[in-house]
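As a warm-up, study this chain.
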Amino acid sequence: MKSKTLTILLLASALTVSGCKRAATGQVVAVVNGEEVSLSELNGELQRAGAQGGDKKAVQAAALQGLIDRKLLVQQARERGIDKDPEYLQQQRRLNDELMISMLGKQVTKNVPVPSTADVDRYIAANPAMFGQRTIYALDQIQFPAPEDRTKLKALEADHSLDEVATTLTQMGIKFGRQKGAMDSAQTPPGLIKQISALPPTEPFVLASGGRVVVSVIADKRVQPLEGDDARQLATQAIRRDAVSDIAKKQVKQARDAAKIEYQPGFTPTAAVGGGAAAK
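Now compare it with the structure written out below.
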């Protein structure tokens, strides 16, 4: 009886092991150290890369090798315990949040209607800086990494030329580079264009984005109207973008109004910094 039981257990164990073995068949195009690469994963990679034309088999093979390399690097990272590192976990949560928000946005805004001809005409008339008076600005610029203490940038408020900015940055020990740039009023928020246009000649303006600071001075400008189909296409995109932005703001407001948010003492925001209603 014991012998028979042992045989059954051994047989069950063998079936379990064989059931766990992965093979590159069917919808599985490769197996990397036991980790499957599916056909849908490969197709997604090709779609994100915008692969088209040429030798389809060669493009597919190159994409698959890239996927395999990535899997191998991820496996090495796991072996080093990076998947348990607090910094990794924090960034992973942020990326997951951003992906969820992006997909929510697509779902909520997929039914935003195409603006009518009258809506497009009104938008073009109401935004001359984007269309009839569209202006291309040639810029002289200074660029540098944003300092950890952003209050240091206040020192630039006393500078009224790019050379003065360069002198101030040198005195503060901040390394910078000089470059030429351009700004298209059709692609720039109207409020910002209005502020920049009101500046005296050679007066610098400062924009910070993505960990870098760019100080610019208008060197030249030329009016280049945007008309016809190009204007209507841009207006249509802008109207839809504004509609999506409005929907997103309403979604956040509704979520905040319905949420129960608790703060540790000392962290409760004021209405001035977007805290909205008092914490519940």
